Amino acid sequence: MILIAGVLAAPLAACGGDGDSASSGSGNSGDDKIVLGFSQVGAESGWRTANTKSIQDSAKEAGIELKFSDAQQKQENQIKAIRSFIQQKVDVIAFSPVVESGWDTVLKEAKDAGIPVILTDRAVDSPDTSLYKSFIGSDFVVEGERAGDWLVKEYAGKTEPVNIVELQGTTGSAPANDRKKGFADKIAAAPNLKIIASQTGDFTRAKGKEVMEAFLKAHSDIDVLYAHNDDMGLGAIEAIEGAGKKPGVDIKIITVDAVKDGMQALADGKINFIVECSPLLGPQLMELVKKVKAGEAVEARILTNETTFTQEQAKAALPTRQY
Ligand code: GZL
């Protein structure tokens, strides 16, 4: 695995393109410009918005023609978009799979059409790794472990029960599966740390608020919330305050992503710890696209380099956050 030292964002420029500009037209742009078909999960969170911007800005920067499709978090829309890219004979296809399973058929169609595929952000569970050239994105198990590790240290030496509720990401998605696993593996070291409720909030603020309201109605003794992304954590903060409790104090909160709104809540003391997950994959993706188009060998797995933030670290980092 190749560690990328940091993830430099392309100079941020106002990016054009709407949510679903999978423009029609012939496959190649007629000149020697590389044509990339990209199927995005949706626009469900601040992380996704930043990820889309990084991809659109980087494609422009790299002189790559981008055909962009927003799947509104539906796998069938991603499969449709990939089939459309195949028909348009694009040079390369890249996508962030909304869930891990159910991709083999369409990826085989791309392979049979001689169009290389790159996975970004999320993985697929297909055993046939010849169906894609490379996967660039985070190690979500490590992200979950970092969250669990912080909690074990936060309660080190204490034996009283600590009741945890968990807001999971999109059901079946790699980040939800892996962040759950990594966190559970780590807190197993402290038997007093117990997950008393765990449910999907689909990575959105609205759903995160709704599920947290239900948790609060069902449990009067919640000590900690572990949310698989900032947006669900921010929705949960609204629910916690609505119940007359202090987020970050009465209920400690750990989230993943480190988007600006999450970092602001962390700096304000409403969140206690954030594990970073960088959305700025655009520059590396465009480099990969060029190499793949040129038939060069590429790394099978490219890991983004990420960190974690405490409340103090968030205050220091906020002024220069790019997303
Ligand atoms: C993680 C990404 C997740 C983010 C969420 O790489 O797939 O999806 O953590 C986003 O905010 O919705």
From TrEMBL:
Domain of life: Bacteria
A Gene Ontology term for the protein's cellular component: cell envelope
The keyword Signal is annotated on this UniProt entry: yes
The keyword Signal is annotated on this UniProt entry: yes
InterPro entries for this protein: Peripla_BP_I, SBP_2_dom
Compartments, record wording: Cell envelope
Start and end residues of each Periplasmic binding protein domain: 37-296
Pfam families: Peripla_BP_4
Keywords: Signal
Principal location listed in the UniProt entry: other
Gene3D superfamilies in alphabetical order: 3.40.50.2300
Alphabetized GO MF terms: carbohydrate binding
Family: Belongs to the bacterial solute-binding protein 2 family.
Protein name (database record): LacI family transcriptional regulator
